[in-house]
Write a structure and sequence with these properties.
By secondary structure, this protein is of the alpha/beta class. It has 2 domains: about 160 residues, Alpha-Beta Complex (Aspartate Aminotransferase, domain 1); about 300 residues, Type I PLP-dependent aspartate aminotransferase-like (Major domain) (Aspartate Aminotransferase, domain 2), CATH 3.40.640. The chain is about 35% helix and about 15% strand. The protein contains 16 helices and 19 strands. The strands form 5 sheets. It has a 7-stranded mixed beta sheet with strand order 6-14-13-12-9-7-8, with helices on both faces. A 4-stranded mixed beta sheet has the order 1-2-3-18. Strands 15, 16, 17 and 19 form a 4-stranded antiparallel beta sheet that branches.
Length: about 500
């Protein structure tokens, strides 16, 4: 075994990893990368089919991001944001506000940051996001939004109010205590139940396994052949109405727009987000969009060309949480964008202590901000838009080859994010048992073929960097087809 692999096995505790299984085999030790390719300590090359756990946007060692970090290193790597400002973080905040609002130009919007509703189903004015709070990762971005929404609600509805939050079944919003409280995946969250505060959940629009979908399985994305009456939207309306009757309307509705990641890459049918956002607004709830995975172009270019998934449905949240791809996948950094109205609720004289008492040692880190500015510049270039459009098209052309495999139950693509659900029988949608490790074994077979990704249960995730070529994508999909055939032959 390689010396580095030995050191890892001896000293490193890996996240979300069954360490007994891990210690039974020699780990892949990554030592280099370029573009969509990673290299291990033995010199073997792999295609990075999940963008290094959904973070890397433009490929590894991108010259523009490398150069931006080098330039910043000649100045300073980090200084505190507690009582001090810095250049790249200030410029990044300005840029984030610009891209978070630019695609809403021409629509009814409230520059003061106040959303207004004219009732369920009506057009809903959009808040203007104008303030940026920097943090470290997706969990902390959600933690910030949660704390701000909690205290804002108490300050506007009365200090005796106990703000309550609604999120989706299968939700995963991070691993800090507040973020875990918003989550509803027992495998991840149940162990910490005694530490959490209660939140409510409502059904996710999981068309493939929806109890209201009367359609028989077909060899197509379940969203395309579903037969229902939008009962999933009705369930959201009932949940809000029931909470309102209790005299304590929900403070906020928390969601991942267009695609739920850790829930199993569950896509939302077109129109769902717009409908439930209008319901939430009509009940006076704030909207918290978790765009940690979906942000910065992941859900596709489309005609609107917004960098954020929420905007593809015409929804502007009160809190926009971003991380992962913010720095192009280079450095841990996150941001929570919100409105002037929320910001104003925390203004007061020194002795009033209306301060937002929350912070991070590396808030507004200069290296991270420099990388993020370079990444945003790349994202807005014609070349990047073209690359993303071509990659999305290539995915749509390559993925149908997987339908010939009887263990493929559903293939769901939203832009540049793909989930392939493996089942025992596509006609019955019968799932593989956890002990069968179907997804893990397929990904292990993929690694032997020079392709790296990580499953979510029985769902294989494909989320390649934007620089991935059509040839590389062809290898990813053909290797997946071969790996499934090896591991789950029928």
């Amino acid at each position: 075994m390689n010396k580095l692999a030995q050191l890892d096995r001896q000293f490193v505790w890996h996240p979300f990893t069954q360490m007994r299984d891990w210690q039974r085999r020699e780990p892949i030790v990554i030592t280099g990368g370029n573009g969509a390719v990673l290299r291990d300590v033995c010199g073997k090359s792999y295609l990075d089919a999940n963008s290094s756990i959904w973070t890397n946007l433009h490929g590894h060692r991108h010259p523009k991001i490398n150069a931006a970090i080098h330039r910043q290193l000649k100045k300073i790597a980090h200084s505190s944001a507690l009582g001090l400002a810095n250049e790249p973080a200030s410029r990044l905040a300005e840029k984030l506000v610009s891209v978070a609002n630019s695609k809403l130009v021409g629509r009814a919007s409230s520059r003061a940051g106040q959303s207004k509703s004219e009732g369920n189903g009506s057009s809903v004015a959009s808040p203007h996001l104008s303030k940026v709070f920097f943090s470290d990762d997706g969990s902390t971005a959600l933690e910030v939004a949660l704390k701000l929404a909690y205290e804002f609600t108490r300050r506007t509805r009365g200090k005796t109010v106990k703000p309550r939050f609604l999120s989706l079944a299968g939700a995963y919003h991070g691993d800090t205590i507040g973020a875990v409280s918003l989550g509803h995946i027992d495998l991840f969250h149940k162990a910490y139940g005694g530490m959490l505060f209660p939140t409510d959940q409502v059904m996710s629009p999981y068309c493939y396994r929806c109890p209201f979908n009367r359609a028989k399985p077909e060899r197509a994305d379940a969203r395309d052949y579903r037969r229902c009456r939008w009962e999933c939207v009705g369930q959201v309306e009932k949940k809000f109405a029931a909470q309102k009757k209790k005299g304590n309307p929900y403070a906020a509705f928390v969601f991942e727009p267009r695609m739920q990641g850790a829930a199993g890459m569950i896509p939302q049918p077109d129109g769902w987000l717009r409908r439930v956002a209008e319901i939430a607004r009509s009940h006076g709830a704030l909207l918290i969009a978790d765009e940690v995975m979906t942000g910065f172009g992941r859900t596709g270019v489309q005609s609107q060309a917004s960098l954020f998934a929420s905007h593809h449905e015409g929804v502007q949240p009160d809190f926009l949480c971003v991380a992962k791809g913010l720095t192009g996948g280079y450095l841990p950094m996150a941001a929570t964008l919100t409105t002037q109205k929320v910001f104003d609720a925390f203004l007061g004289e020194y002795e009033e202590f209306k301060t937002f008492f929350h912070g991070h040692s590396f808030t507004g880190n200069q290296l991270g901000a420099a990388a993020a500015l370079a990444s945003l510049e790349i994202l807005q270039s014609k070349k990047s838009v073209s690359q993303r459009s071509e990659l999305e098209k290539s995915l749509r052309e390559e993925l149908p080859a997987l339908w010939t495999l009887p263990v493929v139950g559903d293939i769901r693509q939203v832009g540049l994010v793909v989930g392939i659900e493996l089942v025992k029988n596509w006609r019955t949608r019968e799932s593989f048992a956890l002990r069968e490790r179907a997804g893990i074994r397929v990904c292990e077979a993929l690694a032997r073929r020079g392709v790296l990704t990580r499953p979510v249960g029985n769902v294989i995730v494909l989320m390649p960097p934007y620089c991935t070529t059509a040839k590389q994508l062809g290898k990813i999909v053909s290797s997946l087809r071969s790996a499934i055939g090896e591991v789950l032959p029928k």
